[in-house]
Design goal:
By secondary structure, the chain is of the alpha+beta class. Helices cover 39% and strands 23% of the residues. The protein has two domains: 142 residues, PAS domain (Beta-Lactamase), CATH 3.30.450.20; 216 residues, 2-Layer Sandwich (Heat Shock Protein 90). The strands form three sheets. It has a five-stranded antiparallel beta sheet. A five-stranded mixed beta sheet has the order 7-9-10-12-11. The protein has a two-stranded antiparallel sheet with strand order 6-8. It starts with 20 loop residues before the first helix and ends with a strand.
Length: 382
């Protein structure tokens, strides 16, 4: 009998094959009898698991069991790390944990596979949507995968340090500064033009006033997010005049640093009269879309804001000519996920979906292809 089973090998990332029952039992016996593994399980702070070369659990420490609320390590033996941690994608096609499209960007999967391939310690940040407590929630782990051998068999000692709280606080602090900075930059740009022109004109004064309102709205959203609550507070809806609102959106972000040497244009809003919404929160959703689009657009490029009427909703769209790589696209609305390495990133797209769907009752989504570029859409009910 071989060391692996014969299951379908379909995968987007890591090999699908698992150890045969006999091989798994030998791996579990090795981990149980190894004094180094025993010492690590007893002394390591945080979560620790030992995996075989098929990425299956063969030993875990008490902290791992406590996190999961599992009384007996036997219940986890043979599972892959995502299955043990109840990752919401652990059973996705084609063959579950490690093989799914989502796993291509998973820090734990990358660290484990890299450690096995290079026989060197690998470290990554892992953002996990888990159902440990019965409902989906995001967790962040700093993951370290350390290789070890016993004869021809390879193993990985997997350390996981829970950094969810630290990441959440860093994200909120950065998010507030980010939003306040965006709108204060708009205030600064407009005020400099006013100073250069002397008295200034009505349009510029309106830009200053609009930016000040956005600062106030950003602070209100920040306070709501501090509660770490998916059920954000309700808001009072008012009639918004669409044409002036879109004009305000364009004038506000035309002076943003990300708009330097780029054009920002809007169309489709001239004939649409009103919409019941919260102006500050709607501006937050669309503003994040616009800034992201501007940041993804090269000098000389154009970001286009569009509106289209449908019986049940008003569709706002923000288009840029770039394309989002698939490994990023599948995770773009996940909390804490970011293409930047600094702590505290990963709120912009998460917040636009949270506010747009759970507060304003709409639908936030996007498409991104080589031929058509990237378009974020917000379908706002009338």
């Amino acid at each position: 009998m071989g060391d692996t089973d014969d299951r379908d090998g379909g995968t987007f990332f890591a090999p699908a094959a698992r150890a045969s029952q006999a091989a798994l039992e030998r791996d579990v016996a090795f981990a149980a009898a190894n004094p180094v593994v025993d010492a690590l399980l007893a002394l390591a702070s945080g979560l620790l698991a030992v995996l075989n070369e098929e990425r299956q659990v063969v030993a875990v420490n008490q902290s791992f069991l406590d996190l999961l609320g599992v009384p007996n390590a036997q219940d986890l033996l043979g599972l892959r790390q995502g299955e043990a941690l109840k990752c919401t994608h652990a059973h996705d096609p084609p063959n579950g944990c490690g093989t799914t499209e989502f796993c291509v960007g998973c820090g734990a999967a990358i660290a484990i596979v890299s450690s096995l391939a290079t026989e060197a310690t690998q470290e990554r940040k892992c953002i996990l949507t888990t159902e440990i407590a019965g409902t989906p929630r995001e967790m962040c782990f700093q993951v370290r995968a350390c290789p070890m051998r016993s004869g021809r068999r390879r193993y990985v000692v997997l350390f996981l340090h829970d950094i969810t709280t630290a990441e959440h606080l860093a994200m909120l602090n950065r998010a507030l500064l980010h939003d306040v900075s965006n709108h204060l930059l708009a205030l600064l740009g407009a005020s400099e033009l006013l100073a250069a022109d002397g008295i200034g004109d009505r349009e510029l004064l309106q830009t200053v006033s609009a930016a000040a309102r956005q600062v106030r709205g950003a602070v209100a959203v920040h306070r709501a997010l501090l509660n770490d609550n998916r059920r954000m507070p309700t808001t009072a809806l008012t009639e918004i005049q669409i044409a002036p609102f879109i004009d305000e959106l364009v004038s506000t972000f035309r002076v943003h640093p990300a708009a330097s040497r780029k054009s920002l244009v809007a169309s489709g809003h001239e004939s649409i009269r009103t919409l019941r919404s919260d102006a500050a929160l709607l501006m937050r959703v669309l503003g994040n879309m616009v800034v992201n689009a501007l940041e993804a657009t090269p000098p000389g490029g154009c970001v286009r804001i569009g509106l289209a009427e449908f019986p049940a909703h008003l569709e706002f769209s923000v288009h840029n000519p770039g394309v989002i790589p698939r490994p990023i696209a599948v995770r773009i609305f996940q909390r804490y996920f970011s293409t930047h390495n600094e702590s505290g990133r990963g709120l912009g797209t998460y917040a636009m979906k949270l506010i747009g769907e759970q507060v304003l009752g709409g639908k936030v989504d996007f498409t991104s292809t080589e031929s058509d570029g990237t378009t974020f859409r917000f379908l706002h009910p009338w």
